[in-house]
Every structure is written in structure tokens, then in C-alpha cells.
Amino acid sequence: MLGLLVALLALGLAVFALLDVWYLVRLPCAVLRARLLQPRVRDLLAEQRFPGRVLPSDLDLLLHMNNARYLREADFARVAHLTRCGVLGALRELRAHTVLAASCARHRRSLRLLEPFEVRTRLLGWDDRAFYLEARFVSLRDGFVCALLRFRQHLLGTSPERVVQHLCQRRKGHTCHQLCHKSSPNKGNRVIYNLTRPPYCRLWFPLTGMGPHILYLSRLASNVQLFKRGKGRGEQRKEVICGMLRKVEPPELPADLQHWISYNEASSQLLRMESGLSDVTKDQ
Of the candidates 226, 227, 218, which has an alpha carbon nearest to the alpha carbon of residue 248? Predict the structure, then answer.
């Protein structure tokens, strides 16, 4: 009996020594919590919050949160974010997956022992091959942004545009940014939306005069045409009929993020030249 206990203890120590057990445990728990215990998020660009607290295992020799722990906590928050908004499910259905291609961190103030914080993650946009996300570490004591992290989440086997289109089709006509307040149920293959309330629906010009009217829906919806106009209870009622989305336009990336993307591209070109690799070899 004693020998069995010693063997189990030695096995447990070997597992903890050779594997990052807590990471392998927390990551599936974060996915299951986001999928089963938290509501789905239809707003693809909405900010999501992931709570945390600085533990003794997170400290370094200066008794504040280790720099590597920021990336670790951001991993959990990012996976939960992509799970709740449906991106991971869409990747699974498209038989694709995602890898972290680049990251950068800016540390503004230390997080101390037992200090509560939130990782506020949001999707900034995408290009032909990757999603760009931001994670902010906000102290719950005073609301100060202690760290700011940016990530380039590269997709393999598909493209971000196809993932977003897949989400729109799976939601049966709902725009991914929850742009409009639905005013009536689905009628056939069309969905009617009421555009009388903010925050995301606005017009390029007022609904006056005759002729077609172009609607601008927060840079994410396209192929939208005016359906009906009328007046009800003292205000002008505007409804549009949204057909199948042909192309989903990404939001404009922030200027600092564009500089970071340019830096990554220039760095990649230099590394490929030093290694003697071509773009074709890199893609393969």
C-alpha cells in the first residue's frame, strides 16, 4: 500500500514537472464556461470581460504579476471571447483552425498580490488571413488600464471573411454586429429590421424625396435596400429588408494597429530574406 502511494506521488510530481497542468485544466474550463454557462454574444465587435485575480503563483521576484502571466491570462480571455461570439464553432464547422501569429504588450502599471482585475477583450477587425484582437487588463480597484495587449490570430484552412459570412448565414439573416432591432419575424428568406433606434443604424442622408436610399450599417452589412416608409405615432418609421450578404466589410483598423501590421510584414520579409525562403515556401 505504501509503495502504491509513493508511486502515485512520484507520478503526480512528474506530471506537474513535465506538463503545465493548470494551463491544460483552465483552458478547457474557460471554453466550457463560455459555451454552457454564459450567454452567446451576437455582437462580433463587442467587448467581453474575463475576471481574474493575482495569485501567489503569478508573482515574480519584485512581488508583482509576472510579465508572462499577462499573455497566459489573455489566452484564456481570448478563447472565451471567440467561443461566445461563435468564431470557434464556425472554425470547427469549416474544418479550419487558428494559431497565434503575433502579439505585443504594453505594461503601464503593476498588478499586486490578490489584486482583482478584468481582461477586456474585443475584436478590432480582420484582413485576408487573420483576426486582430485587443486585451486590456483593468484593475477593479480604480479602473486603471494596467496593460494593453494586441494579437494577430492567423486562420488556417479558411479566411476571416468566410468565417464572418458563415456566422451571418448561421444566424439566419442577423447581422454579426447586431446592427438592427428586429421588428418582425423571419418572412421566407428575408428579415425585416426596424431602424428607428440607435446605436448602430444610421443613414447616409435623410429619407426625403423619391428614389433609392442607401443605408449604412456600421460598416458590416451590405446588399441592403429600402423596403418601406411610413409614419407612426409622430415619428418616421423606417424599415429595410436585408437579403443574403454578399460581402462583409471589416471595420477600419486603428492607426497604431496598422503601423504594427506594417512592422510585422517588414520583419517577416527580412527574416525570409535571411533564411532564403520565398512566400510560396512560407505559405506551404
Answer: 218
Please report, as a single letter, which amino acid is at residue 52.
G
Q: Which of 18, 15, 119, 16 is nearest to 75 (CA)?
A: 119
Of the candidates 211, 99, 107, the residue with the CA atom closest to the CA atom of residue 155: 99
Q: In 10 A of CB 134, how many CB atoms?
A: 18
Q: Judge if pTM exceeds 0.85.
A: no
Report how far residue 215's alpha carbon sits from residue 195's, in angstroms, rounded to the nearest whole number: 10
For the chain, give every domain's residue range.
20-167, 173-242
Helix (H) or strand (E) holding 222: none
Residue with cell 454574444: 41
Averaged confidence pLDDT in the chain: 77
What the block records as the C-alpha cell of 47 is 467587448
CA distance 188 to 15: 56
CATH code assigned to 20-167? 3.10.129.10
